[in-house]
User: Which sequence fits this backbone?
């Protein structure tokens, strides 16, 4: 006798990706059960913390698909999976309209492409962590209410432990519910529990040697449970060595007022970033996400320092959302300042000759000189500001990790792929637990977590509706 199913579709994780998949499947009449490991009504996850900017590669996700895709390919330097890139960009505009039809509210929060589609009420643009009653918090409540109206269920306090496979097909999940083991059965399973940024063991395996020296710029609920379960049944993993995050003041490691904002990317991509020996170690011109990953790869990720002068502080230092100038100081951070480079070196504990040489060679690069003997300095996207006129400044920084960009390999319908590249029957994944869209290795680039989660969550729900049909 075949055991009865607890649902047509089990969704692991109740963030944006999971609730998008659940709502779309429920709209088709499928019986949907969402499993959320937290017991709290306002369960924490990155989707709840978000400031609410829906974008693709830092630009308008509702733009012309060919243009949006070309921008994503530039951002990832050609390493984005073309199938995933096409699926994302061709369905982005439609996804925004669909979310709005469920009650999610959007506003134009600024003139640039990044802020064309922002959640309403908008995220509070102030230093520290402020999410209650705004942006992602309201979005998740709205989607949960929509799911309930559609007949779907969201059960909290359920920890997914292992996938149930029969004949090569996923037919359920073994869970812990109220501390007791239980097997839940379904016709299909969607993994949508976020990345593995909160799991130091997985970070050490995939990302860097010292993950304990990274700033957890996230809800710390992304533990990689879905990735681990998928890998155990033969799923392929891709792009797991890079993460999305920002350069932050080092004091943010112990002071919550200094994260998630202000971020210091604009200083890092304008000045020079040095390690504990006073040497440059990366191409600052490749952007803040790249620099953040390079800091994480250092033998000591807490040794990095940005060096710049007064012109940079009053130029790029005032750029972007909640810029370092003035918000770093008002939030309790500090600048290390000195009238001369020699004096600055003394405050940093570096030999003056070392810092002077590093700055001189960087200035030569800023003037268009050769990169011989040091990392190059790309200027396509970010101008290299020379460090010439005092007072001179430095900021001690750390790498803030928001979510891991790699993970489970999927196709354009969000189906999980095996080691051979074939879909694993009945198994889907969406959101930050997946990889491929943002490329991998040093060329990996940030596509946008909200766009990735919502589009592929919706596509998973649509493929489930098309293949499973009416509720059994």
Assistant:
């Amino acid at each position: 006798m075949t055991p009865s199913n607890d649902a047509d579709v089990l969704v692991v994780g109740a963030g944006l990706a999971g609730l998008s998949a659940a709502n779309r499947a429920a709209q088709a009449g499928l019986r949907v059960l969402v499993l959320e490991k937290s017991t709290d009504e306002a369960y924490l996850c990155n989707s709840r913390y978000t400031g609410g900017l829906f974008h693709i590669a830092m630009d308008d996700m509702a733009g012309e698909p060919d243009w949006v895709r070309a921008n994503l390919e530039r951002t990832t330097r050609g390493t984005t999976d073309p199938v995933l890139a096409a699926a994302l960009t061709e369905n982005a505009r439609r996804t925004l309209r669909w979310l709005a039809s469920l009650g999610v509210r959007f506003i134009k929060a600024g003139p640039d492409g990044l802020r064309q589609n922002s959640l309403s009420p908008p995220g509070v643009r102030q230093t520290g962590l402020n999410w209650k009653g705004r942006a992602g918090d309201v979005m998740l409540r709205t989607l949960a209410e929509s799911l309930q109206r559609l007949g779907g269920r969201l059960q909290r306090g359920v920890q997914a432990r292992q996938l149930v496979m029969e004949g090569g097909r996923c037919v359920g999940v073994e869970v812990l519910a109220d501390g007791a083991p239980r097997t839940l059965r379904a016709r299909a399973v969607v993994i949508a529990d976020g990345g593995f940024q909160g799991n130091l063991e997985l970070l050490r395996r995939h990302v860097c040697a010292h993950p304990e020296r990274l700033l957890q710029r996230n809800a710390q609920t992304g533990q990689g449970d879905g990735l681990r379960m998928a890998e155990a049944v033969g799923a392929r993993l891709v792009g797991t060595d890079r993460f999305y995050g920002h350069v932050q003041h080092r004091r943010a490691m112990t002071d919550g007022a200094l994260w998630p904002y202000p971020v210091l990317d604009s200083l890092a991509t304008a000045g020079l970033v040095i390690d504990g020996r006073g040497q440059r170690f990366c191409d600052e011109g490749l952007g803040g996400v790249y620099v953040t990953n390079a800091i994480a790869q250092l033998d000591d990720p807490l040794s990095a320092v940005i060096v710049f002068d007064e012109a940079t502080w009053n130029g790029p230092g005032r750029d972007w959302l909640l810029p370092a100038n003035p918000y770093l100081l008002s939030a309790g951070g500090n600048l290390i300042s000195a009238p001369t480079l020699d004096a600055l070196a003394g405050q940093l504990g570096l030999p003056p000759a070392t810092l002077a040489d590093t700055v001189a060679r960087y200035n030569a690069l800023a003037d268009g000189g050769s990169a011989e003997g040091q990392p190059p300095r790309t200027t396509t996207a970010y101008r290299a500001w020379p460090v010439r006129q005092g007072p001179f400044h430095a900021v001690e920084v750390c790498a803030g990790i928001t979510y891991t960009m790699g993970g489970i390999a999927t196709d354009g319908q969000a189906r999980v792929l095996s080691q051979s590249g074939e879909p694993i029957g009945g198994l889907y994944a969406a959101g930050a637990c997946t990889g491929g869209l943002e490329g991998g290795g040093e060329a990996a680039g940030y596509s946008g977590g909200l766009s990735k989660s919502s589009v592929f969550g919706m596509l998973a729900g649509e493929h489930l509706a098309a293949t499973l049909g009416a509720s059994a």
